[in-house]
Amino acid sequence: MSVQKATKLPYSINIKLQMSAEEGVKEVKVDRKLKNAIMDGVEPQGGGGRQLSMKELNRVVKNIVDGGRYAEGEKALVRALLQATDDRNHVEINGVRIRITDPAEIAFTHSMHQFFGQLGGKAAAKKLDGQTAAQVIAAYAQAAQQA
Prior knowledge:
Structural class: alpha+beta
Helix content: 40-55%
Oligomer: single chain
Strand content: 5-15%
Shape: globular
Low-confidence stretches: 121-126
Largest sheet: 4 strands, antiparallel
Radius of gyration: 16 Å
């Protein structure tokens, strides 16, 4: 009886990213788990298109700062998501358009500004992990519903 080793998937994967028509399509190396979280949220389901809503966004944000780190693999995808919050921009990952619903785009922008503001201090950046970022989004969504 032989024991097979589990194959470990690589941290990064190459994707085709388009942030605007002027820039065109570029091939970039990104975090595999974050890319999968984004694509799971926007891939067409049952023939129809889909947008990132609060539910999918929570999963995405947890993968942005997983392990308490924000590395090169996350940067291109975070920039793409921030770009996708502006409806005037046409952002695509591997040919699939990235769209974010209105409440989710505001919450995402808010939480990412809070996260990037924390990057100045090492201790502060460690405190804002994926779970904390997801809590920021949930708190913002709850406040928006009450308003």
